[in-house]
Design brief:
Layout lengths: L7 E4 L3 E4 L2 H4 L5 E2 L2 H9 L7 H30 L64 E6 L28 E7 L3 E2 L6 E8 L5 E4 L5 E7 L5 E4 L11 E4 L5 E6 L19 E9 L2 E2 L3 E5 L2
Parallel strand pairs: 4-12, 6-15
Antiparallel strand pairs: 1-2, 2-3, 5-7, 7-12, 8-11, 9-10, 9-13, 13-14, 13-15
Length: 301
């Protein structure tokens, strides 16, 4: 079929053609239709099987997607504020469990008398106080507790102890800023049991301070119910002495526990120790010159 120069016609086989070679700058050029081009894209042409070309295309698409995901991850990491974590961490105060060192002393510590005004032998300067109406309750804050063992008692109570105080830091604790409390493990024990007795030291001031809680300055004493007879002391048979500097923080008392064997004693343990019978007793503690109020202890009643 002849083509008229300068005109467009439709060819049944080649689609659209241009006869004006001078206007187009090409001689006999053919413009393929969109349907012909799409057919070549969907049906790869080459010396290799069609499946090879499709695998290559899929691989290229996969690499492109991986690159896109990696770019998104990097952008997200850069946009997040530093230090953000999806899990909340909980911190707590952890201490190791150890028993206070014990060494036999050569001089027994002085007796601790309940601060009752009418009882002979009450230490000078001790404020008068009567027995509390019930067993002492632990403080709300965490208690750092170290155990001392009565020689005839059972296994010690496992409790944590604090680490050494820093070389520089809070000032020393004056006696007026220290409160000593006597506590019992239970309000009543059966006869033959080994009661847990505690000496609790607390800082009543507004700021932390440092105190040497030397074992020789600590004492737990069991008295008769009327406070007239001294029955047992934690320092009669064992009087440990060692420097134990502690930083006392307000609201965080420190406790020292003793498993009492239930046997009586005298300073130096020079006599045979007899078991204390059923009855109502008092427990008094001290740290140096600071003495606690008595706390009731019932045995077998």
């Amino acid at each position: 079929m002849d083509l008229v120069p300068g005109s467009w016609r439709t060819s049944p086989t080649a689609g659209w053609t241009c006869d004006d070679a001078a206007a187009s700058g090409m001689s006999g050029a053919t413009i393929r239709s969109d349907s012909s081009t799409l057919g070549h894209v969907m049906d790869p042409v080459g010396p290799l099987p069609t499946s090879v070309y499709w695998r290559r295309r899929l691989l290229a698409v996969g690499v492109a997607l991986l690159g896109l995901f990696g770019l998104l991850w990097i952008v997200t990491a850069l946009l997040l504020p530093p230090g953000v974590d999806s899990d909340d961490s909980t911190t707590g105060r952890t201490a190791h469990v150890e028993a206070s060192p014990q060494a036999p002393g050569t001089t027994p510590a002085a007796d601790v008398r309940p601060p009752d005004p009418g009882v002979p032998g009450t230490p000078a300067g001790a404020p008068p106080a009567g027995p509390s109406t019930g067993p002492a309750t632990p403080n709300a804050g965490p208690v750092d507790e170290t155990v001392r063992q009565d020689p005839a008692a059972g296994p010690p109570v496992l409790v944590p102890s604090a680490g050494p105080a820093p070389a520089t830091g809070p000032p020393p604790c004056p006696d007026a800023q220290i409160k000593v409390t006597a506590e019992v493990g239970a309000p009543q024990y059966p006869e033959g049991a080994k009661p847990v007795l505690r000496l609790v030291v607390a800082n009543t001031g507004p700021t932390p301070c440092v105190r040497d809680l030397d074992g020789a300055d600590q004492e737990i004493v069991v008295w008769s119910g009327d406070g007239a007879k001294r029955l047992w002391s934690s320092n009669d048979c064992v009087n440990p002495s060692s420097s134990d500097l502690r930083t006392l923080v307000p609201g965080q008392p420190v406790a020292f526990a003793v498993n009492w064997s239930g046997l009586g004693s005298v300073p130096g343990c020079t006599t045979e120790r007899d078991r204390i019978g059923p009855g109502a007793y008092r427990v008094v503690t001290r740290l140096g010159p600071v003495i606690s109020a008595p706390t009731p202890l019932l045995i077998g009643t």
